[in-house]
């Protein structure tokens, strides 16, 4: 899946599944459950054991159907490892302008994490594809609405605290998309092999994101 197709998927489904701490034996089942539930964008965080191997595996198995990226990218070394593994896009929890510029030079979409207007604009000017507003739960939907006044030209993805109950509010507040972790990629259910739980949760989130 090329860059344009992947970014279109983010625009269409609005949801990025954040996969953190999932064991390698479960990753295919999780990806299939997300896909079956309508979530076609997922990131594997690099602080997950075996992350780069899982990214490569998912690209091979699901690369035509899903947009698979790397999350928790902290520095240039992480960036290079993620790209080498085949990550289609990168997500960071912070602003590192060297990382943003490097990704942009390589033609890899990057969603760096930012909190303040100054950080958001700095990330955008450095070459961010969209800016991850983090931590979303602590900042709140009202904060994101206020950001839209002066900064509505910058695509924003809210991460943290997004649920099926409030996802529509985040979208209505102006978010380009949202990132959802543990409330969708539930490690307890996954460890039990209950991939149907993930599929059902994904389906409800996708339905509620249509506003």
**What is the average of the pLDDT values?**
95
What letter string, H or E per element, gives the SSE order? HEHEHEHEHEEHEHHEHEHH
Q: How many helices?
A: 11
Largest sheet: 7 strands, parallel
Evaluate the radius of gyration.
16 Å
In total, how many beta strands? 9
Unreliable stretches (pLDDT < 50, length at least 5) are: none
Strand content: 15-25%
Q: Report the helical percentage.
A: 40-55%
- Lateral arrangement of strands in the main beta sheet: 3-2-1-9-8-7-6
Shape: globular
Question: Whole-Å distance between the termini?
Answer: 26 Å
Category from helices, strands and their pairing: alpha/beta
SSE blueprint:
Elements: H1 3-13, E1 15-19, H2 27-36, E2 41-45, H3 51-62, E3 67-71, H4 76-85, E4 90-91, H5 97-106, E5 110-111, E6 113-114, H6 117-126, E7 131-133, H7 136-139, H8 141-151, E8 156-159, H9 167-172, E9 177-180, H10 187-191, H11 195-209
Parallel strand pairs: 1-2, 1-9, 2-3, 4-5, 6-7, 7-8, 8-9
Structure characteristics:
two-stranded parallel sheet; Aldlse_KDPG_KHG; 9 strands; 211 residues; 11 helices
